[in-house]
Protein backbone atom coordinates (compact mmCIF):
# COMPACT_ATOMS: atom_id res chain seq x y z
CA UNK A 1 0.00 0.00 0.00
CA UNK A 2 1.30 3.45 -0.88
CA UNK A 3 1.96 5.81 2.00
CA UNK A 4 -0.93 8.18 2.67
CA UNK A 5 -0.22 11.60 4.17
CA UNK A 6 -1.96 12.46 7.44
CA UNK A 7 -5.35 14.01 6.74
CA UNK A 8 -6.97 16.27 9.31
CA UNK A 9 -10.36 15.22 10.68
CA UNK A 10 -12.32 18.45 11.13
CA UNK A 11 -14.10 19.18 14.42
CA UNK A 12 -17.59 19.19 12.83
CA UNK A 13 -16.99 16.18 10.60
CA UNK A 14 -18.13 12.59 10.72
CA UNK A 15 -16.10 10.67 8.18
CA UNK A 16 -17.49 7.43 6.78
CA UNK A 17 -15.22 4.98 4.98
CA UNK A 18 -16.73 2.24 2.79
CA UNK A 19 -15.05 -1.00 1.69
CA UNK A 20 -16.02 -4.30 0.10
CA UNK A 21 -15.13 -7.55 1.89
CA UNK A 22 -13.22 -8.80 -1.17
CA UNK A 23 -11.39 -5.53 -1.79
CA UNK A 24 -8.30 -5.84 0.39
CA UNK A 25 -5.50 -8.31 -0.45
CA UNK A 26 -5.10 -11.05 2.14
CA UNK A 27 -1.43 -10.16 2.62
CA UNK A 28 -2.43 -6.63 3.62
CA UNK A 29 -5.13 -7.83 6.00
CA UNK A 30 -2.75 -10.14 7.84
CA UNK A 31 -0.07 -7.46 7.99
CA UNK A 32 -2.33 -4.84 9.60
CA UNK A 33 -4.82 -6.85 11.66
CA UNK A 34 -3.42 -8.25 14.97
CA UNK A 35 -3.41 -12.01 15.47
CA UNK A 36 -6.05 -11.79 18.22
CA UNK A 37 -8.52 -10.18 15.83
CA UNK A 38 -7.59 -12.63 13.08
CA UNK A 39 -8.46 -15.46 15.45
CA UNK A 40 -11.73 -13.77 16.36
CA UNK A 41 -12.63 -13.44 12.68
CA UNK A 42 -11.66 -17.05 12.14
CA UNK A 43 -14.48 -18.19 14.42
CA UNK A 44 -17.04 -17.30 11.77
CA UNK A 45 -18.12 -20.34 9.74
CA UNK A 46 -18.76 -18.52 6.48
CA UNK A 47 -15.83 -17.14 4.50
CA UNK A 48 -17.66 -13.89 3.70
CA UNK A 49 -18.26 -13.28 7.42
CA UNK A 50 -14.56 -13.79 8.13
CA UNK A 51 -13.68 -11.38 5.33
CA UNK A 52 -16.13 -8.76 6.58
CA UNK A 53 -14.67 -8.94 10.08
CA UNK A 54 -11.07 -8.74 8.87
CA UNK A 55 -11.86 -5.94 6.43
CA UNK A 56 -13.56 -3.96 9.18
CA UNK A 57 -10.51 -4.33 11.42
CA UNK A 58 -8.20 -3.30 8.58
CA UNK A 59 -10.38 -0.37 7.50
CA UNK A 60 -10.65 0.99 11.03
CA UNK A 61 -6.89 0.99 11.63
CA UNK A 62 -6.06 2.30 8.17
CA UNK A 63 -8.63 5.12 8.35
CA UNK A 64 -7.35 6.18 11.77
CA UNK A 65 -3.75 6.02 10.58
CA UNK A 66 -4.60 8.37 7.70
CA UNK A 67 -5.48 10.98 10.34
CA UNK A 68 -2.78 10.32 12.93
CA UNK A 69 0.07 9.64 10.51
CA UNK A 70 1.08 6.39 12.21
CA UNK A 71 1.33 2.98 10.59
CA UNK A 72 -2.03 1.14 10.46
CA UNK A 73 -0.56 -1.85 12.29
CA UNK A 74 0.48 0.42 15.18
CA UNK A 75 -3.02 1.84 15.81
CA UNK A 76 -4.23 0.74 19.25
CA UNK A 77 -7.84 -0.44 19.48
CA UNK A 78 -9.47 -1.36 22.79
CA UNK A 79 -12.50 -3.66 22.55
CA UNK A 80 -12.99 -4.29 26.26
CA UNK A 81 -16.65 -5.12 26.91
CA UNK A 82 -18.17 -2.90 29.60
CA UNK A 83 -20.23 -5.86 30.87
CA UNK A 84 -17.80 -8.77 31.00
CA UNK A 85 -14.33 -7.34 30.31
CA UNK A 86 -13.70 -9.54 27.26
CA UNK A 87 -12.30 -8.16 24.00
CA UNK A 88 -15.53 -8.14 22.00
CA UNK A 89 -16.97 -4.73 22.90
CA UNK A 90 -17.29 -1.55 20.86
CA UNK A 91 -13.94 -0.31 19.53
CA UNK A 92 -12.24 2.55 21.34
CA UNK A 93 -9.10 4.54 20.62
CA UNK A 94 -6.84 5.89 23.40
CA UNK A 95 -8.36 9.04 24.95
CA UNK A 96 -5.39 11.12 23.80
CA UNK A 97 -6.29 10.52 20.14
CA UNK A 98 -9.60 12.37 20.60
CA UNK A 99 -11.50 10.37 17.97
CA UNK A 100 -14.60 8.21 18.44
CA UNK A 101 -15.13 5.29 16.06
CA UNK A 102 -17.71 2.72 15.02
CA UNK A 103 -17.70 -0.25 12.65
CA UNK A 104 -20.51 -2.09 10.85
CA UNK A 105 -20.69 -4.66 8.07
CA UNK A 106 -23.42 -6.46 6.17
CA UNK A 107 -23.93 -7.87 2.70
CA UNK A 108 -21.20 -6.61 0.39
CA UNK A 109 -20.19 -3.58 2.48
CA UNK A 110 -18.08 -2.63 5.46
CA UNK A 111 -18.42 0.82 7.07
CA UNK A 112 -16.23 2.71 9.53
CA UNK A 113 -17.22 6.02 11.13
CA UNK A 114 -14.80 8.47 12.74
CA UNK A 115 -15.57 11.77 14.45
CA UNK A 116 -14.36 14.15 17.17
CA UNK A 117 -17.88 15.33 18.02
CA UNK A 118 -18.88 12.57 20.45
CA UNK A 119 -19.81 8.91 20.74
CA UNK A 120 -20.73 7.57 17.32
CA UNK A 121 -22.62 4.60 15.93
CA UNK A 122 -22.81 3.49 12.31
CA UNK A 123 -25.06 0.75 10.97
CA UNK A 124 -25.35 -0.83 7.53
CA UNK A 125 -27.87 -3.52 6.65
CA UNK A 126 -28.35 -5.66 3.56
CA UNK A 127 -31.81 -5.84 1.99
CA UNK A 128 -31.64 -8.78 -0.45
CA UNK A 129 -35.40 -8.82 -1.01
CA UNK A 130 -36.47 -5.46 -2.34
CA UNK A 131 -39.75 -4.38 -0.80
CA UNK A 132 -40.01 -7.35 1.60
CA UNK A 133 -41.79 -6.35 4.82
CA UNK A 134 -41.77 -8.36 8.05
CA UNK A 135 -44.91 -7.23 9.89
CA UNK A 136 -44.08 -9.05 13.13
CA UNK A 137 -40.56 -7.64 13.30
CA UNK A 138 -41.86 -4.12 12.61
CA UNK A 139 -44.44 -4.41 15.40
CA UNK A 140 -41.68 -5.37 17.84
CA UNK A 141 -39.34 -2.64 16.61
CA UNK A 142 -41.42 0.45 15.86
CA UNK A 143 -43.51 2.65 18.11
CA UNK A 144 -47.25 2.94 17.47
CA UNK A 145 -46.73 6.34 15.86
CA UNK A 146 -43.95 5.02 13.61
CA UNK A 147 -46.11 2.11 12.50
CA UNK A 148 -48.95 4.48 11.67
CA UNK A 149 -46.59 6.69 9.65
CA UNK A 150 -45.39 3.90 7.35
CA UNK A 151 -46.16 4.70 3.72
CA UNK A 152 -47.68 2.38 1.14
CA UNK A 153 -44.14 1.02 0.69
CA UNK A 154 -43.36 -0.31 4.19
CA UNK A 155 -40.73 -2.67 2.79
CA UNK A 156 -38.69 0.41 1.85
CA UNK A 157 -39.54 2.53 4.90
CA UNK A 158 -38.82 -0.06 7.59
CA UNK A 159 -35.12 -0.74 6.77
CA UNK A 160 -34.43 3.01 6.85
CA UNK A 161 -35.96 3.28 10.31
CA UNK A 162 -34.12 0.16 11.45
CA UNK A 163 -30.63 1.46 10.58
CA UNK A 164 -31.36 4.82 12.21
CA UNK A 165 -32.30 3.07 15.44
CA UNK A 166 -29.38 0.64 15.29
CA UNK A 167 -26.98 3.55 14.79
CA UNK A 168 -28.45 5.26 17.87
CA UNK A 169 -28.10 2.11 19.96
CA UNK A 170 -24.49 1.69 18.88
CA UNK A 171 -23.68 5.32 19.69
CA UNK A 172 -24.97 4.84 23.24
CA UNK A 173 -23.25 1.48 23.67
CA UNK A 174 -26.57 -0.08 24.67
CA UNK A 175 -26.90 -2.49 21.75
CA UNK A 176 -30.15 -4.39 21.82
CA UNK A 177 -30.38 -4.12 25.61
CA UNK A 178 -32.72 -1.18 25.01
CA UNK A 179 -35.84 -2.15 23.01
CA UNK A 180 -35.99 -0.42 19.65
CA UNK A 181 -39.67 0.29 20.15
CA UNK A 182 -38.73 2.73 22.93
CA UNK A 183 -36.79 4.83 20.43
CA UNK A 184 -38.78 7.04 18.10
CA UNK A 185 -37.35 8.69 14.99
CA UNK A 186 -38.76 10.75 12.15
CA UNK A 187 -40.58 8.96 9.30
CA UNK A 188 -38.44 7.36 6.61
CA UNK A 189 -39.28 10.02 4.01
CA UNK A 190 -38.17 12.88 6.28
CA UNK A 191 -34.67 13.99 7.30
CA UNK A 192 -33.54 11.69 10.11
CA UNK A 193 -33.91 12.95 13.65
CA UNK A 194 -34.42 11.47 17.10
CA UNK A 195 -37.85 12.33 18.52
CA UNK A 196 -37.95 10.41 21.80
CA UNK A 197 -36.14 7.73 23.82
CA UNK A 198 -35.90 6.67 27.48
CA UNK A 199 -32.32 7.87 28.07
CA UNK A 200 -31.39 11.01 29.97
CA UNK A 201 -29.61 12.48 26.94
CA UNK A 202 -31.85 15.23 25.46
CA UNK A 203 -32.94 14.55 21.88
CA UNK A 204 -31.46 17.87 20.77
CA UNK A 205 -28.05 16.54 21.83
CA UNK A 206 -28.19 13.76 19.24
CA UNK A 207 -27.55 13.96 15.51
CA UNK A 208 -28.65 11.44 12.88
CA UNK A 209 -27.80 11.17 9.18
CA UNK A 210 -28.77 8.75 6.43
CA UNK A 211 -25.88 7.39 4.37
CA UNK A 212 -25.60 6.35 0.72
CA UNK A 213 -24.31 2.75 0.69
CA UNK A 214 -25.69 1.87 -2.72
CA UNK A 215 -28.15 -0.69 -4.02
CA UNK A 216 -29.76 -3.22 -1.67
CA UNK A 217 -28.17 -1.68 1.41
CA UNK A 218 -29.37 0.87 3.95
CA UNK A 219 -27.17 2.77 6.38
CA UNK A 220 -27.22 5.56 8.96
CA UNK A 221 -24.90 7.20 11.45
CA UNK A 222 -25.67 8.70 14.87
CA UNK A 223 -23.48 11.02 16.95
CA UNK A 224 -24.14 12.11 20.52
CA UNK A 225 -23.63 15.84 20.06
CA UNK A 226 -25.66 19.03 19.94
CA UNK A 227 -23.35 20.55 17.34
CA UNK A 228 -24.06 20.63 13.60
CA UNK A 229 -22.97 17.44 11.85
CA UNK A 230 -21.24 17.27 8.48
CA UNK A 231 -20.94 13.78 6.99
CA UNK A 232 -18.23 12.96 4.47
CA UNK A 233 -18.35 9.53 2.76
CA UNK A 234 -15.21 8.04 1.20
CA UNK A 235 -14.25 4.76 -0.44
CA UNK A 236 -11.39 2.48 0.59
CA UNK A 237 -9.84 2.68 -2.89
CA UNK A 238 -8.21 5.85 -1.58
CA UNK A 239 -6.44 3.83 1.14
CA UNK A 240 -5.00 1.10 -1.08
From TrEMBL:
GO cellular component labels: cytosol
Domain annotation 4'-phosphopantetheinyl transferase N-terminal: ranges: 27-113
GO molecular function: holo-[acyl-carrier-protein] synthase activity; magnesium ion binding
Metal-binding as UniProt keyword: no
Keywords: Transferase
Superkingdom of the organism of origin: Bacteria
Classification via Pfam families: AASDHPPT_N, ACPS
GO terms of biological process kind: lysine biosynthetic process via aminoadipic acid
Limits of the 4'-phosphopantetheinyl transferase domain: 120-220
InterPro entries (UniProt xref): 4-PPantetheinyl_Trfase_dom (IPR008278), 4-PPantetheinyl_Trfase_dom_sf (IPR037143), AASDHPPT_N (IPR055066), P-Pant_transferase_sf (IPR050559)
Family to which this protein belongs: Belongs to the P-Pant transferase superfamily. Gsp/Sfp/HetI/AcpT family.
Protein name (Swiss-Prot/TrEMBL): 4'-phosphopantetheinyl transferase
Species for this entry: Kutzneria buriramensis
Upper taxonomic lineage: Bacteria, Bacillati, Actinomycetota, Actinomycetes, Pseudonocardiales
Amino acid sequence: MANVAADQLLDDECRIWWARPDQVPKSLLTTVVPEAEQRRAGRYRQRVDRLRSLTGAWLLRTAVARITGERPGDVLIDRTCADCGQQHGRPRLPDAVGIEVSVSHAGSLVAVALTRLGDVGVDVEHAPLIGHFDHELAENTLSARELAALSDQPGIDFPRLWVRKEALLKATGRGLRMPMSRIEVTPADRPPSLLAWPLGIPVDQVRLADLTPGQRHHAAVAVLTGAPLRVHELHADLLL
